[in-house]
Amino acid sequence: MNYFVTAIGTDSGKTLVSSILVEALKADYWKPVQAGMPTDSETVQSLITNDQSKIHPETHLLKLPASPHAAAKYEHLSIQMDDFVLPETDNEIVVEGAGGLLVPLNDEDFVIDIAVSLNIPVILVANLYLGSINHTLLTIDYLKRNNIEVKGLVFNGESNPESERIIEKHSGYKVLLRLPKLGLVSKEVVQYWADELMLNWYE
Fold first, then answer.
1. Which residues are catalytic?
2. β pairing state of 33-35 and 150-156
3. pLDDT tens, 150-165?
4. Domain boundaries, the chain
5. Inter-axis angle of helices 40-47 and 187-201, to 10 degrees?
6. pLDDT tens digits for range 187-196
7. Consecutive H or E run containing 6
8. What is the Cα 116 distance to its own chain's centre?
């Protein structure tokens, strides 16, 4: 099974969660659209320890740290949905989106459309901050209204039990992991949380 990691916004922790998933599942990793450097592929490569995972090259590697549609326009490029083909592998693939669901790829398509077109279930990262309930429930509403399959939810950041409770209640999604606010992220930290993830994965 392949999984598409998306989030309620930018800098929500998608790359950290992707690294944990890759390490836990010994899966491959693919970032279809990268805007800005350093790349998330480089970060994931630096945080995993297993020798089975392969990091596949980005379909679009854009220099400008901006929305993909703007970064592509800056380079006189056009991103099309036909560009996105799953890399050939016998392994599972963790696919990481860019920003949140409705980050535009072009004038018509959004990042979440990659998951839909490739028929990959979503893992939603919800970081916890003042206002995140609204952003998370709006994201969940979109996923539900569009019948997009969701494997589960990852909370990221300093625990807020009331926020987590209300989001769980209204989503009905399984919580795969509750990541605390982490300081230094290392291979050892990723390995620890990969082991924790697997305790919930098959329940």
1. 31
2. unpaired
3. 999 999 999 999 999 9
4. 3-201
5. 90
6. 999 999 999 9
7. strand 3-7
8. 14
Instruction: For residue 168, give every residue at least 6 positions away whose Cβ sits within 8 Å of its Cβ, in sequence order, or none.
Output: 153, 175
The topology (CATH level 3) of 3-201 is Rossmann fold (3.40.50)
The tokens for 88 are 């050939």
Is 178 a residue whose pLDDT tops 90?
Answer: yes
pTM: 0.96
Angle 4-130-100 (CA atoms, 0-180°, nearest 5)? Answer: 25
Identify residue 168 by its one-letter amino acid code: E
DSSP reduced 3-state for 146: coil
| Residues linked to residue 94 through DSSP beta bridges, in sequence order | 3, 29
The residue among 193, 162, 29 whose CA lies nearest residue 97 is: 29
Decide the pairing of beta strands 122-127 and 60-62: unpaired
Give the chain's radius of gyration (CA, Å). Answer: 16
CA distance 69 to 67: 6
The 10 Å CB-count burial string (b at 16+, else e) for 18-35 is bbbbbbbbebbbbbbbbb
CB 116 within 8 A of CB 97: no
